[in-house]
Amino acid sequence: MARRAGVSEKTVSNVINDHPHVRARTRAAVEEAIAALGYRVNLAGRHLRRGESGVIALVVPELDLGYFAELADLVIREAERRSRTVLVHQSEARRTREESALDGFGTDFVDGVILSPLAMDDDALQAYRSRLPVVLLGEVPRAVRHAHVAIDNVAAAREATEHLLDGGRTRIAVVGGRPPRPSGTAELRTRGHVEALRARGMAADPTLVRPAREFHWRDGAALTAALLAEARPPDALLCLNDLLALGAMRALHDAGVRVPEDVAVVGFDDIAPGRYSVPALTTVAPDKPRLAREAVRLLAEAVEGRRDTTGAASGREFGPSASKVVVGHTLLIRESSSTAR
Predict the structure, then answer these.
(1) What phi and psi values does residue 85 have, to the nearest 5 degrees?
(2) Which of 60, 207, 236, 318 could staple 264 via S-S, CB 3.0–4.6 A?
């Protein structure tokens, strides 16, 4: 192959391993030789030489939730670009499953884990010592033992609430909200909502913060039906994910309440069903491609950093890492909130 491309074997290796410092003309010549000779990289052998399996685990609460399904697709694509395979696992928001994932399911099959924790809180994540590199997805502010990728949930919820206030809404319910304290995603989004109200000189009404047992369509519908039965129903719903929002819009429709004329609705996540609902759903869209890209990058760098000077995995416990990446978000204003009351 080197002879056909007119380069050294080292240059061929650099191209195959995607080293950045290769001239475009040289890279093209090597790639042409690879295609002509039908060469296939032995990825298993490459990873074995490094003391790795080439497999990373992605652990999410449920693949039934559109956000995690879309995110899994993006992580798989990014990992493939880095010549790695992804094992997708559902934790079902159970602590035992999340802890098992942090240790690679009790085997040496995976090199590292990307985990979206729900059952393990900040203290549990801080205390639990994983023997594998771990990258956390979602809001876990104090879990500095592991690398962490998330959006700014406080800012995102503040922006969404400001949009509703600008549309003339004065009684905004938080569907899926929880008391605002420095903890998980729901708590931080509730805090952002409260901050937006206070900035306008408005008091936050704790009776309008409605926790969800789960973040499914049925929960959004049930919570919204309960809100509509109140003596003073809300004129807007800030739903903390799109499934809650879509369930809420169904309950509003069944009750003969117009969206957005009577009640405006905003969600989070920008999943596909919200783009095609009637009315189309206003939502906070996290930069999911970058979130997946950064999670895989951080994990790959951590895996590579574990190798000792001989190139094999060191076998040491994976220690603390303060790496945190905040990715962007965009408020996508669609029909469900676009008309001022």
Answers:
(1) -105, 145
(2) 236
| Residue type present at position 333 | I
Q: Read off the amino acid at residue 196.
A: A
Burial call 210-239: b when 16+ CB within 10 Å, e when fewer: bebeebbbebbbbbbbebbeeeebbbbbbb
Q: Can you give the pTM of this predicted structure?
A: 0.80
Give backbone dihedrals phi and psi of 53, rounded to 5 degrees, phi first.
Answer: -100, -20
- pLDDT of 175 strictly over 80: yes
Give the span between the Cα atoms of 340 and 48, in whole angstroms: 61
To 5 degrees, how large is the angle CA 192–CA 194–CA 324?
Answer: 20
269: which 2 tokens? 């996540």
- H or E element: which one contains 197? helix 185-199
Helix (H) or strand (E) holding 55: strand 55-60
Which helix (H) or strand (E) segment is 112 a member of? strand 112-115
Is the CB of residue 293 less than 8 Å from the CB of residue 267? no
CA neighbor of 1 nearest in space, from 45, 38, 28, 33: 33
User: Token pair of 35, please?
Assistant: 């295609």
Contact 234, 170 (CB under 8 A): no
What are the tens digits of pLDDT across the range 45-70?
444 445 457 999 999 999 888 899 99
Q: From CA 30, how far away is CA 6, in angstroms rounded?
A: 8
> CA torsion sign, 285 to 176 to 338 to 260?
positive
Collapse the DSSP code of 72 into the 3-class scheme (helix H, G, I; strand E, B; otherwise coil) and give the result. Answer: helix
